[in-house]
Amino acid sequence: xxxxxxxxxxxxxxxxxxxxxxxxxxxxxxxxxxxxxxxxxxxxxxxxxxxxxxxxxxxxxxxxxxxxxxxxxxxxxxxxxxxxxxxxxxxxxxxxxxxxxxxxxxxxxxxxxxxxxxxxxxxxxxxxxxxxxxxxxxxxxxxxxxxxxxxxxxxxxxxxxxxxxxxxxxxxxxxxxxxxxxxxxxxxxxxxxxxxxxxxxxxxxxxxxxxxxxxxxxxxxxxxxxxxxxxxxxxxxxxxxxxxxxxxxxxxxxxxxxxxxxxxxxxxxxxxxxxxxxxxxxxxxxxxxxxxxxxxxxxxxxxxxxxxxxxxxxxxxxxxxxxxxxxxxxxxxxxxxxxxx
Length: 341
Fold this sequence. Notes:
A hairpin with a 2-residue loop joins strand 7 and strand 8 (121-135). The chain has 9 helices and 15 strands. It has 2 domains: 10-174, Alpha-Beta Complex (Nucleoside Triphosphate Pyrophosphohydrolase), CATH 3.90.79; 180-334, Phosphoglycerate mutase-like (Rossmann fold, 3-Layer(aba) Sandwich), CATH 3.40.50. Helix 3 (151-157) runs antiparallel to helix 4. The protein has helices at residues 18-21, 89-101, 151-157, 161-174, 207-220, 234-247, 259-264, 266-278, 291-302, and strands spanning 23-25, 30-32, 44-54, 64-70, 75-77, 79-82, 103-118, 121-135, 145-150, 180-186, 227-230, 251-253, 281-287, 318-324, 327-334. The chain is α/β, with parallel strands linked by helices.
């Protein structure tokens, strides 16, 4: 009689089997989300979550992270959940964390993604760091217990090795904390330059561009920006106007964030950018497609983060640039604010 194989087929694999054939893509401080993450595999189930933390980031020993217990699986894991229709991955992470744990969070560094088969699909989970800013946990059907524990206690508590690897990546980020972040946004799609006869600075967003500007609100607001800057063109200012309205912030217009200024005086443009970095906290800068890749390349060359891949800046997309002091230490590219499902 032939012996039975001990390895289950892909169709038989469940969430609790994710260590069996799972992979992690958590290497490096430069992370990118694909333009169409829902198309990465033939059948993709997208999810997003975060390593929830509290404490003083300047003292790693004070940091506690949240491990959640799911009664349905009887396991200890990190907070995450599946994408709902109409959501970006960032919006999913924030919503799922609120639903599962009751906590409000400020997102930080994109840690990467884990990939593993579940039944007949490939589950892809993106993780950020998430600082708890408020809220209260109430036991529910999805999560009946949360334990806040130091990093060294969380690792043995977690059920899955994939989750431990995500936690280890977060610990590395905690050890080189961001003192400032720049949400570096390219304006949304505008009407064709060739069909516009007036002042190019007045060329407005088209229908898709206006939708991109609206969808930037749920994608960028979870990073808690404190100030918003824009290049001079109307299409840049209009791109961040809905976010400014949502957060009750003014938009400071500075020509040094635009293409023309970059062509004329790169030194002045670099100085203007670094002046925003020196403000600390989180700022939004809406810019144009010529200056952005050159500015990011300069930041990479002069900081601690080499970026060897092409620097993409699609319209309506954003880079989350993390700085320790004046050095670039993290770069996460989100090519679109539009829903991934």
